Amino acid sequence: MRVESNVIAPAGVTLGGLGVLGFSFSLPATRLAVLGLDPWFVSFGRAVGAGLLAIGYLTYTRAPRPSGRQWRQLAVVAVGIVIGFPLSTSLALETQTSAHGAVVIACLPMSTAIWAVLRAGERPHRGFWVASLVGFMAVLVFMFTTGGVNGGFELPDLFLLVGVVLCGLGYAEGGALSRDLGGARTVCWTLVVALPVSVPVTVSVALTSGFARADGTAWSGFGYVTVVSMFLGFFAWYAGMARGGVAKVGQVQLAQPVLTLVWSALLLREPVGWATVLTAAVVLTCVVWTQRSRVQRVGNG
């Protein structure tokens, strides 16, 4: 079965945009958290905190249990968004800046689109790939010309690239699964699936590393990545993908690197120049372009 669409899904794009808005502060918040907390605690501890919230939500809504196939899909999502991406970014941002990390994160929409082909049964047409590439290049040029990149390729960059690949997988698999489970239940069950791994790692790290260096700023960053980045943000993100398609809505995240720098400007009083405005306009154009491009879905899932 093939389903083809070249119509913009306003609800999907809006929900996806809300998710991106929440995610756009994830790197700065993670950077703040790892300055005072062990990166392993940050990556797995936020999964535990979000997992407890997920249990509360699933219990309150009396959510039905997933099927056997869906449990396997949830495990794949957990590897991508609960373990792989948080751990990779936490390790990278222990020594690297969030602005530098935003450069590599610019690859995430492309990674998501590729995984959408491999895992979600979507087949974007040529115009989609052209728009995605133009938006990706616009963000990279912006980051290079505004000082977002300093130095050569280092180990933190490798961590970030691994995180991008795994996160794209988690986005695509979770977006496809959300068509059946819904966005909220998909992320909640994913967090529950990850608890047998996230709880023991969190406890072990907490007992060995302690919290001597943690201050209010570090805990604030940890709180953000727990409640927003790991929980509420995915409610909107996966719901948007379920409505608008994984590949299309995934391209909304082209705006995330620019938004990350905007947060830095607002919080750190850094100036926002004409390049930021111009890049934002190019990215917005490319996002609209991808929404108007045709995407075929192969099969029923």
Please summarize what this structure is:
This protein has 13 helices and 3 strands, in the order βααααααβαααααααβ. With 301 residues, it is mainly alpha-helical.
Averaged pLDDT: 81
Into which percent range does the helicity of residues fall?
A: over 70%
Shape: globular
Please report the distance between the alpha carbons of the first and last residues. 10 Å
Low-confidence stretches: 1-8
Q: Classify the beta-strand content into a percent band.
A: under 5%
State the total count of DSSP E strands: 3
Task: Outline the structure in words.
- The chain has 301 residues and is mainly alpha-helical.
- It has one domain.
- Helix content is 77%, strand content 4%.
- It has helices spanning 10-23, 26-34, 39-61, 68-93, 98-105, 108-119, 126-145, 155-181, 183-209, 216-244, 246-250, 256-268, 274-292; strands spanning 2-5, 122-124, 295-298.
- The chain has a three-stranded antiparallel beta sheet.
- The chain is globular and about 50 Å long.
- The model is unreliable at 1-8 (pLDDT under 50).
What is this structure's SSE topology?
Layout: E1 2-5, H1 10-23, H2 26-34, H3 39-61, H4 68-93, H5 98-105, H6 108-119, E2 122-124, H7 126-145, H8 155-181, H9 183-209, H10 216-244, H11 246-250, H12 256-268, H13 274-292, E3 295-298
Helix pairs in contact: 1-10, 2-4, 2-5, 2-10, 3-4, 3-9, 3-10, 4-8, 4-9, 5-7, 5-12, 6-8, 7-13, 8-9, 8-10, 9-10
Give the tags.
disordered N terminus, single chain, mainly alpha, 13 helices, 301 residues, 3-stranded antiparallel sheet
